[in-house]
Amino acid sequence: MSAQDSESVHDAVAAYSLGILDESEATAFEAHLAGCDYCAAQLDDFAGMEPMLAALAEPPGPPRELTPPSPALLANLVGEVAVQRSQQARRKRRGLYLVAAAAAVVIGGSSAVVLAAADNGPGRLQAAPDPHPTSPAEDAFFHHMEKKTQATDPVTKVTAVVGTEKKGWGTHTVLELKNVKGPLKCSLVAVSKKGEEEVVSSWSVPKWGYGIPDSPHKAAKNPLYVHGGAAMDVNEIDHFEVRTFDGKSLVKVEA
Fold first, then answer.
1. pLDDT digits (tens, 9 = 90+) for 120-134
2. Distance linking the first and last C-alpha atoms of the chain
3. I need a labelling partner for 53 at 20 to 30 A (CA). Which of 29, 42, 79, 105 fits?
């Protein structure tokens, strides 16, 4: 079969779907359709088109016999279907790319290594710097807060800095904690001017501690940074207090 004959067979899918082929032509096309995935897909797209064309061609008044669509109309229909299928394929590919990107973020989580283009040549990748050893709260929030208050407890020697910012929902806080050893479980408590209390955040302190400059443990030399939120308005808070879970006060910081 020549290329021209093959093309004409493919073009017959529209006429076949509309039922305007004669018996011999329909039989020949059905034999071709059995082994042609392209025409099978085209036939699915044309499914239900015959009633629609009949409705469009039928003028008001008594029903009359449907006039078969012209070859030009059939060609236009085939072209339109091809365009629609191409657009659908592009949308599907774009959706798959987005799903793959989202999956990479979810699977990687906080331990994912982010790659960036290196300065020593195009197309080469290098690992991003290691994340902050304790918490991203320092880089993301603490240094951007305009109001910070500090205190050191004379007995425990624990030092705390509390940064606060007013939010529509209450008060956002970031705590910097130094010179604290564990193992401990602690909370940052906001105390209102009326004496009401609200836990802002809680965390665990490992046995080697946080913010101890002369510690032999590398991670212990870094302060602890932890952020949280209180429903209280920032103007309602009198002070903050770092307490252990058994109620011992480590340090008190004025708001």
1. 444 554 444 444 444
2. 88
3. 29
